[in-house]
UniProtKB/TrEMBL annotation:
UniProt keywords, alphabetically: Carbohydrate metabolism
GO biological process, one term: carbohydrate metabolic process
Family the UniProt entry places it in: Belongs to the glycosyl hydrolase 57 family.
Superkingdom, taxonomy of origin: Bacteria
GO molecular function: catalytic activity
Native species: Malonomonas rubra DSM 5091
Gene3D superfamilies recorded: Glycoside hydrolase 38, N terminal domain (3.20.110.10)
Name of the protein this chain belongs to: Alpha-amylase/alpha-mannosidase, GH57 family
Pfam families, per database record: Glyco_hydro_57
Transcription regulation listed as a keyword: no
Record PANTHER family: ALPHA-AMYLASE-RELATED, ALPHA-AMYLASE-RELATED-RELATED
Length: 713
């Protein structure tokens, strides 16, 4: 339905196009299948259905942009096939939690906005104070009731306004405030799962009713112009340092667009759709490709328009027109209005904030009757700063616009249908961030990531992309899908110095896991370069050093109390992991004499479970070289390799414990050599476990200096 004529009969109303962009990357570890971070589920609980409820309540006509990988995650949550490590911990009874899991909950279940969720709620705030600085030792202060209350409050804090007002279970628990029972927690989880599970169907319903238009982003949220040609990064940024690879794959861009549309149509229902390119990133080649693949329209930022117009945008009223490049209709977001909603109004009184929006829109309408103002922004993250999750603001905003005779809420498709697009002779390359691409390329970490992607693609992909494009009726192979996921923008977003998150190492690891998965799917060994951090972790695990040189008997048993008494120890569970699992090694003992390096693992049953009868357990030592020490569970053999070449063997035994001895000569160790240590469980060519889950534990081989040091003391 196209917008109607002027409500007042005097002038055509200004078409107000609000587009809410919904995006979360795929947080699933492609090797283990475990979902490492819960943000898709949590935003599904707090924001996705919440936004639609307010739209339905007010009858507002808006556009909702959904990223296909987000839709796939919501689909898995709805059918129960997703294994989310955070939700597993929220579900478990406190008396069934390991010490590592208790520490994880105490550390991470305050991951909410403190001003709007923690401080106003007495019990949640009390638990926050009990945690103190958040050191892992603070978990011992939490008894079972404290832990259960924390589990419940974490879930309650992520409920939106509609659930809090309409769902009796949520209302009652908020009123009760503390001393929750296990039964109450389980009922809350049922409500939460149901809310997340209905998200896709609610989108379908509102689109079928014509209330919303659903647009999409290319499949894995890639920066299309950079996939087409990395050198495009220098178009808006001359002299920008580029990766040392020549990456030009417009065929990947085409498949990202095609699969994005196909995924949305499969999940939501088939219909023509517009596209918000990831981060509003456009170029002339990308725009042509979008049109060729059937996109109805595309959108980007006002600065792209300013750089595309001859003479720039000297008259701001030129922003409020529909344009087209080639045959692709384009709209350009009003940055000021969009950013005021995203970053400013949360701290304002609701009436004043809405009044400010209306005044600005009326001013635009007076000068541009019948034209279009696009308001485009993130539809998830800003609401946690607003009172009541933004519901009062959005309800009043939608209602006020609809009641104003100068204004007309409409979808992007409706606005374009009611307009005659103005042709653009050129389309500047850039994104909605500084109208360039420097967020994703140019920093040494970002450039290294592009080089790893390019090298992996070169070694793994032959004609699979061409075959996928030639056979659109066939579903994509997992190999091709993994490549598309690795090309997503989110990994590059967190590299470099511009953005900071406590989860940077998780994003680093997920990016490399997608690349590793390509080698697994091809049945090839994973190259050592993918085991190295792109963004070095801020901290490394430090262990307790051995007190003296010693020589244990390698028989898989603890012979007597003194056998390993002098050993050093590394607490693998204290690695600051962003997910926890009961299937986790807790610690590793180590030491040495003049001839051998020794390791001991006290959880052999866990290794057998994760590795299977034919798998292997790996110790990875990273120093001047990266050594791989492989213990075979099939025959108890121990091999030492570097860069795929076997250097020799050691000895090992796995009975009550796993004991390992590695000849010093194979490692060419010298006194004072430092190493990073990580442990890996492999089964059927896949990695089933990794400890620490991020980073590495550091230790120093002192050799004979150890005894000299202790003697001098």
């Amino acid at each position: 339905m196209a917008p109607t004529a002027a409500k007042s009969g005097l002038a055509k109303p200004l078409k107000v196009c609000i587009l809410w962009h919904m995006h979360q990357p795929d947080y699933r570890d492609p090797i283990s299948g475990q979902t490492l971070l819960p943000w898709t589920w949590l935003h599904g609980l707090k924001d996705y259905g919440e936004m639609l409820e307010t739209i339905a309540e007010t009858g507002a006509r808006v556009t909702v942009n959904l990223v296909p990988t987000l839709l796939e995650q919501l689909e898995r949550y709805a059918d129960g096939s997703d294994r989310d490590s955070w939700l597993e911990l929220a579900t478990r009874q406190p008396n069934q939690l390991s010490e590592n899991e208790r520490q994880f909950i105490v550390q991470h279940f305050f991951s909410v906005n403190q001003e709007t969720q923690v401080l106003p709620n007495r019990r949640y705030h009390q638990l926050f104070r009990l945690r103190g600085t958040g050191s892992i030792t603070s978990a011992v202060e939490f008894d079972e009731q404290d832990l259960r209350d924390l589990q419940v409050w974490f879930l309650l804090a992520w409920t939106g306004s509609h659930l809090r007002r309409k769902q009796a279970v949520v209302k009652d628990l908020l009123q009760q405030g503390e001393n929750f029972s296990e039964e109450q927690k389980q009922r809350l989880l049922e409500v939460c799962h149901a809310e997340v599970g209905r998200t896709i169907e609610l989108h379908r319903q509102l689109e079928e009713q014509g209330l919303i238009e659903i647009s999409v982003t290319p499949y894995a949220h890639p920066i299309l112009p950079l996939l087409c040609d990395l050198h495009m990064a220098q178009a808006p940024s001359p002299g920008l340092p580029l990766p040392g690879v020549d990456f030009r794959h417009p065929e990947d861009s085409r498949l990202q667009v095609r699969e994005g549309l196909a995924t949305a149509n499969r999940i939501l229902g088939a219909r023509p759709r517009g596209m918000w390119p990831a981060e509003g990133s456009v170029s002339e080649d990308a725009a042509k490709l979008l049109k060729e693949e059937g996109a109805l329209w595309a959108a980007t930022d006002e600065d792209i328009l300013a750089r595309s117009l001859d003479g720039g945008m000297q008259d701001r009223n030129r922003l409020y027109r529909i344009y087209q490049y080639g045959d692709l209709p384009l709209i350009f977001r009003d940055r000021e209005l969009s950013d005021r909603i995203g970053f400013l109004y949360a701290g304002w009184d609701t009436g004043e904030a809405v009044g400010d929006v209306l005044n600005k829109l009326r001013k635009i309408a007076t000068q541009n009757p019948g034209e279009t103002v696009p308001i485009i922004l993130d539809g998830e993250n800003c609401w946690e700063r607003y009172p009541d999750n933004g519901y009062p603001f959005l309800r009043e905003l939608y209602t006020s616009i609809q009641q104003d005779p100068q204004l007309q809420l409409c979808t992007v498709k409706e606005a374009i249908a009611a307009s005659k697009p103005i042709p653009l002779k050129k389309l500047a390359a850039g994104s909605w961030i500084r109208s360039d691409f420097t967020t994703w390329i140019g920093h040494p970490e970002e450039n290294l990531a592009w080089e790893l992607l390019a090298k992996t693609r070169e070694e793994i992909i032959s004609d699979e992309i061409e075959q996928a494009l030639a056979n659109p009726e066939q579903p994509l192979s997992e190999l091709v899908r993994e490549l598309l996921r690795a090309e997503g923008s989110d990994w590059f977003w967190w590299f470099g110095d511009e953005h900071v998150t406590a989860q940077a190492d998780i994003f680093d690891r997920l990016f490399r896991l997608h690349l590793e998965s390509l080698y697994h799917l091809k049945g090839l060994p994973v190259p050592a370069r993918l085991h190295q951090w792109i963004k070095p972790p801020s901290t490394q695990l430090e262990g307790v050093e051995p007190s003296a040189c010693f020589t244990p008997q390698i028989d898989g048993r603890i012979g007597d109390y003194f056998e390993w008494l002098a050993a050093g120890k590394i607490d693998l569970a204290a690695g600051g992991a962003m997910y926890a699992s009961r299937e986790s090694l807790q610690e590793i003992h180590y030491g040495y004499n003049s001839d051998q390096l020794f390791f001991r693992i006290d959880e052999p049953e866990l290794l057998r479970k994760l590795c299977g009868d034919q798998g292997c357990f790996e110790l990875r030592l990273t120093g001047k070289q990266q050594f791989h020490i492989y213990f075979s569970l099939a025959d108890s053999s121990l091999q030492v390799a570097v860069e795929g070449k076997t250097l020799g063997s050691g000895s090992a035994a796995c009975e009550q414990v796993l004991e390992i001895a590695v000849p010093i000569k194979l490692l060419a160790l010298a006194n004072g050599d430092k190493f990073g240590l990580s442990c890996h469980a492999h089964q059927d060519g896949r990695e089933n476990g990794r400890w620490p889950t991020e980073g590495s534990a550091s230790f120093c081989y002192l050799g004979s200096d150890l005894d000299d040091e202790n003697w001098s003391v």
